[in-house]
């Protein structure tokens, strides 16, 4: 059993602390604003008066606050106690922020892991909870058994920014899905069809379309968007144009889908009508040296 500090008792910090207590770990908790530790104290947590005190009582400090500005403030408060301990930062941020935090922790002589939580608070400890980690492999291996208790622990590499990169990429996919759902539902809603009723058609359709992704991935990885094309960019640009015309005619806002048509039209040119729509990836990817 480990001695663990949970720094930050928002919805996620509370869930993490509760899970670790259930698993029998010795948990010390701290939150900027007092009064959030009562339920955890009833389950056996000890409340510390400061972040430094919580860290000093523990081998591992799990930091989960609103953003990296808040995380930096907590790390500064805890700095005197961090030397020789492990800081696991599960605060949501950018890869650059994660790398800077890793350097900051190294300067304080703390081992550092950055993490991205792919779960909501009620999911913590459950079979669908996934937490991505990056940073020192030695540190991850040393604490993997404890971290597995919070959810499947996936180590992505020594670069501390990798967990955040994958976290934000997965969330980008999620928001794209939600955007499609909102746009499609607004269209049928214009004729009085309810969202719940429409879902019966939408979910199987979206599930079937997920089957297209491996083909797109192959084209993106090879850079060749002309192999095995079934539905070309020319046809799909006309089709998406029809969809946006219909959306406008129905009095529905086009905001969520219109940027995709702009990309299709920008990509469409002499010789690209027969390539796949995966070609739009070339318009949004970062240009690399040699491209
Ligand atoms: N909740 C969720 O569904 C998502 C799931 C995926 C991961 N996220 C990220 O987890 C971080 C914490 O999220 P949270 O849900 O716990 O957020 P809140 O309930 O709003 O609690 C925020 C905590 O942050 C503390 N805090 C804010 N500013 C400061 C600061 N300057 N110094 C110290 N602590 C600060 C706040 O303290 P207080 O307001 O109670 O005093 C809460 O403990 C987050 O990165 C999500 O993106 C959650």
Brief sketch in words of this structure:
This protein is an alpha/beta fold and 291 residues long. The protein contains twelve helices and eight strands.
Question: What does this protein structure show overall?
Answer:
By secondary structure, the chain is α/β, with parallel strands linked by helices. It has 2 domains: 3-159, Rossmann fold (3-Layer(aba) Sandwich); 190-284, N-(1-d-carboxylethyl)-l-norvaline Dehydrogenase, domain 2 (Orthogonal Bundle). 51% of the residues lie in helices and 13% in strands. The chain is built from 12 helices and 8 strands. The protein has an 8-stranded mixed β-sheet with strand order 3-2-1-4-5-6-7-8, with helices on both faces. α4 (68-82) links the parallel β4 and β5. α4 packs parallel to α5. The longest helix is centred in the middle third of the chain and has 29 residues, at 161-189. The mean pLDDT is 97. The structure holds ligand FVH. Ligand FVH binds next to α1 and α4.
Determine the mean pLDDT.
Answer: 97
CATH topology-level fold name of the largest domain: Rossmann fold
Rg, please? 24 Å
Q: What is the top-level CATH class of the largest domain? A: Alpha Beta
Order of helical and strand elements = EHEHEHEHEHEEHEHHHHHH
Strand order within the widest beta sheet: 3-2-1-4-5-6-7-8
Task: Please count the helical segments.
Answer: 12
- Could you give the distance between the termini? 51 Å
Beta-strand residue percentage = 5-15%
Give the uncertain stretches in residue-range form. Answer: none
Shape: elongated
Unique ligands: ligand FVH
The CATH superfamily of the largest domain appears as NAD(P)-binding Rossmann-like Domain
Structural class label: alpha/beta
CATH architecture of the largest domain: 3-Layer(aba) Sandwich
DSSP strand tally: 8
| Main sheet overview | 8 strands, mixed
Supply the number of structural domains: 2
Helix share of residues? Answer: 40-55%
């Amino acid at each position: 059993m480990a001695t663990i500090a949970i720094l930050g008792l928002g919805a996620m910090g509370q869930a993490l602390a509760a899970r670790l207590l259930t698993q029998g770990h010795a948990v010390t908790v701290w939150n900027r604003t007092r009064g959030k530790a009562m339920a955890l104290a009833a389950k056996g947590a000890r409340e510390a008066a400061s972040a430094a005190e919580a860290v000093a009582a523990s081998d591992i400090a799990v930091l989960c606050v609103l953003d990296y500005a808040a995380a930096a403030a907590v790390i500064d408060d805890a700095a005197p106690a961090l030397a020789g301990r492990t800081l696991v930062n599960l605060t949501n941020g950018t890869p650059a922020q994660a790398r800077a935090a890793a350097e900051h922790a190294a300067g304080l002589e703390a081992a550092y892991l950055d993490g991205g939580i792919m779960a909501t608070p009620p999911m913590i400890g459950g079979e669908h909870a996934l937490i991505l980690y990056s940073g020192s492999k030695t540190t991850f291996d040393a604490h993997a058994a404890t971290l597995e208790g919070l959810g499947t622990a996936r180590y992505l590499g020594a670069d501390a920014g990798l967990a955040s990169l994958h976290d934000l990429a997965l969330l980008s996919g999620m928001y794209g899905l939600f955007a499609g759902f909102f746009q499609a539902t607004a269209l049928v809603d214009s004729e009085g069809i309810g969202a719940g009723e429409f879902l019966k058609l939408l979910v199987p359709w979206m599930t079937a379309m997920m089957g297209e992704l491996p083909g797109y991935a192959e084209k993106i990885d090879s850079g060749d968007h002309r192999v095995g094309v079934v539905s070309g960019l020319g046809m799909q640009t006309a089709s998406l144009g029809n969809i946006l015309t219909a959306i406008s005619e129905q009095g529905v806002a086009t905001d969520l889908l219109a940027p995709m048509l702009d990309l299709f039209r920008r990509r469409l040119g002499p010789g690209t009508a027969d390539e796949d729509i995966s070609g739009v990836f070339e318009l949004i990817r970062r240009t690399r040296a040699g491209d």
